[in-house]
Write a structure and sequence with these properties.
Length: about 450
């Protein structure tokens, strides 16, 4: 699965001794080189295409996008026939996506796909162009781009996600007939694969959003008929939860309660936990999970207690939730750094951190400061507060935003109808982010079982 692969990469790069120091050394070196590569007026001199691409990559991996674009632009202007031009165009377009300047991203993806559609960067750019339109809520434009991808690249690297994105894009555009058509086509095209399961899951989510409860129950039964959910974005526990929710809304209360109760309530099942909450709300009996295991207790320490309590109390947030994120982000290693340039205990990227530096009390923030636990925790707490206010205190949405971005989390929340934590998690559209949310919420549940709000052991 994508999430496991990404997690293994993070573990390798973040925890291998010296990796983050080498990466930060490379950034300092490139910054120093740029000082000497400018003329007296400050204009960047023309270097080799390879050197510009290399420096751009270093800046980009540290999320210093304006600096990266300066070097990519040099390649495009000075070396228009160089093989690195598609990479430079893709880099500029993708950097604008990271900065949430989606109109500019589309403009640069257009340049890329017009002249270099046959390259790998061109194919990737076409898929990301569709994603940019989605972020702009231009769902029909996004659908046209994804249909172009399906027609042009039936064996492309993103052919399965293009099909799935078409279902959601048409759904969000309110064109349910087209969404259903693509769901059926995806089921046929990708029969006996995880993508077939994901398409059935998309159909179920659409029926719940439309509040067509009998059809949602039928779609859940169709999904539950699958013998294995391995490699897909759904699970049997999730399908049962969604079926129970639909039964409850359809007025079939006893069947709903029986279906909720059939989901094991353990710390390894997120949907078992929210199912128990639904049972409690309805006054039905529910299974209390067994106490955390010795391993779960050992894997859930309280680290940096003084810093966490100080910063959380300032902002009226639960320090146990910060611990849950910290455990998932860095495994409590203050010097951790990801390949995407996220640093420190709460894995903050510099372009996010600088938005909150003044409120956190660090107006002169530098990238390396993010390795200092007090600084990182203060900035991370400030960021979580902003997300809490944006998403109405829904912890699942905060976690999704932390990993998958604020725009994406807002979109998934808009797709969640009714507003229920389990419905929201089912709508999370990235496999990595969905797994991340479930892991963070599992961490949080264990921490709440073990510690009170002052981080004293119960």
């Amino acid at each position: 699965m994508k999430y496991i692969f990404l997690a293994s990469i993070f573990t390798f790069f973040a925890l291998v001794p010296g990796f983050c120091q080498k990466s930060d050394t490379a950034l300092r070196r490139v910054r120093d080189q740029d000082i000497f590569s400018r003329d007296p007026s400050g204009k960047l001199q023309t270097l080799s295409a390879e050197e510009h691409l290399s420096r751009a990559e270093t800046y980009s991996s540290n999320r210093l996008f304006p600096e990266a674009r300066e070097h990519w632009s040099k390649v495009i202007i000075s070396y228009p026939n160089d093989p690195g031009v598609p990479k430079a165009l893709f880099g500029i377009a993708r950097s604008f996506m990271w900065e949430r300047q989606y109109d500019k991203a589309v403009e640069w993806f257009d340049k890329l796909t017009t002249d270099h559609l046959g390259t790998k960067d061109g194919r990737e750019g076409l898929a990301f162009k569709g994603a940019s339109y989605v972020r702009m809520s231009k769902y029909l434009e996004a659908a046209k781009v994804y249909e172009q991808y399906v027609a042009a690249f039936p064996q492309g690297e993103k052919i399965d996600s293009a099909h799935l994105n078409l279902i959601d894009a048409y759904r969000e555009a309110g064109n349910y007939d087209e969404a259903e058509k693509w769901a059926a086509k995806t089921v046929r095209t990708f029969s006996a694969t995880p993508t077939e399961i994901n398409a059935k899951h998309a159909r179920l989510r659409m029926e719940i959003y439309r509040e067509r409860w009998p059809q949602a129950v039928a779609a859940a039964d169709d999904l539950l008929a699958e013998t294995s959910f391995r490699g897909s974005m759904a699970s049997s526990d999730e399908a049962r939860y969604l079926k129970a929710f639909a039964l409850e809304k359809a007025g079939r209360k006893q069947q709903a309660m029986d279906t909720y109760a059939a989901i094991p309530n353990s710390y390894t099942s997120y949907f078992g936990g929210v199912a128990s909450e639904r049972l409690a709300i309805n006054g039905a009996k529910f299974h209390v999970p067994a106490p955390p295991t010795a391993k779960q207790i050992a894997d859930s320490p309280v680290m940096y207690r003084a810093d966490l309590l100080r910063e959380s109390k300032k902002r009226n947030i639960d320090p146990r939730f910060l611990l849950a994120i910290m455990k998932q982000e860095s495994v409590f290693k203050a010097v951790a750094k990801s390949p995407a340039g996220a640093r420190g205990l709460l894995q903050l990227v510099y372009d996010t951190a600088i938005k909150y530096k003044d409120a956190a009390g660090y107006p002169e923030l530098q990238p390396d400061d993010l390795y200092k636990p007090p600084v990182n925790i203060a900035l991370g707490a400030e960021y979580v507060v902003a997300l809490r206010d944006q998403f109405g205190g829904l912890y699942e949405a905060i976690a999704a935003s932390y990993n998958g971005g604020e725009d994406n989390a807002a979109r998934w929340l808009n797709r969640s109808k009714p507003k229920d934590p389990g419905i929201f998690v089912s709508e999370v559209g990235f496999a990595e982010t969905k797994n991340y949310v479930i892991k963070v919420m599992t961490n949080y549940r264990i921490y709440k079982n073990l510690y009170d709000e002052n981080l004293n052991r119960r």
